[in-house]
Automatic annotation (TrEMBL):
InterPro entries: AI-2E-like, YtvI-like
The species this protein was found in: Gracilibacillus oryzae
Transmembrane domains' residue ranges: 7-25, 31-49, 61-87, 169-189, 228-247, 253-276, 288-306, 318-340
Localization per record: Membrane
Keywords for this protein: Membrane, Transmembrane, Transmembrane helix
Membrane topology label: Multi-pass membrane protein
Example GO biological process: transmembrane transport
Name of the protein in its database record: Sporulation integral membrane protein YtvI
Amino acid sequence: MNIQKSIVFRSMLLLLILVISIFLFLSSVQFLFPFLLACFFSIVLYPMIQFVAKTFHFSHTLACVIVLLLTICSIILLFAFILFEIIDGIVYLAKWLPGPFHNFLIDITEKVNSWLLPLLDKLNIYIDNLTPEQNALMKEQLEEISISFADQFANFLENLLRSIGDQLAALPGTMTIIIFSLLCTFFICKDWPKFNHWMKTHITNTIYLVPFQIYDQLKITLLKYAKAQFLLVSISFITILIGLMLLKIEHAFTISVIISALDLLPILGTGVVFIPWSLYLLISGNSLLAYFLIGLYLLIIIQRQILEPKLISDAIGIHPLLTILAVYLGFQLFGINGLWAGPLTLFLGKAAHQAKLFSTIRHFIKTGEVNGGKS
């Protein structure tokens, strides 16, 4: 009986610790975000720091400085490259877009007129047949609809401009967070050997090893997952590039890079570009090219649906059905962010299982000793 009471007590203690930890984390995450970002940077950069220190026989501190400076320079160059590409794309579109856009508006106007004018004629005939009271009521309803539409459009513009202003106003704060995170990253990486030594000295060996085992397993899983996604995106890129080159589309390489990168987006994917592009070509009268683009889009979808379950399942060792279920539950619970949170939770659970965290917890609940992770 005492053994059962001890098991229940330890179970409740662990549950209480878990609930309190989750509550403290969720309530403080907005304040600790720069530090958490620094921890993430440190996890990513520390293996590079060790490699530089061992390869070039630099001191640990000097290796930290070099790797951090190279990372900052790489990020700046990447953003500069993206910015220049965007500017170049805007300049190209500014030269190319007016003619096609003008023709597009003319086509849209003609199609709307051909569809709307007969309806207006029928509506006028119907209104003429109404009584004066019904006629006045109809006009009043139409006025209310137009006023409501105008108000909604005005609210949309107001919210859009406000959101743009908020984003611009948040830029200084974002830069402050990044600078603070990079400073924290430097000190975490520099003092990591001391922190590691303190952890080994003051914490039980099993408890100390489990987080590192989880990290190692998670790193392996995420690396395999990234390789699988890179392979899928590369296949999509090659397919899109060959298709666009056969269709003699200008800037086929740049367009292929952008569309294949969008293939990483959950649910949306390459359809963000292909669907509006095909609709525009259909409306503007270039039906043949539109059908070819739709065919190319369907080919990409089919090949991804065939290859993705096999590649992802082999990479992370999780059945595709569980991954789909994790995405669905994450979306239902957390909205659009759940599309990433669901699979990430699944990856963490698998890494924790491989690191024998659950067996350690089970052993602690049964015996009160923290040494079950070594079995």
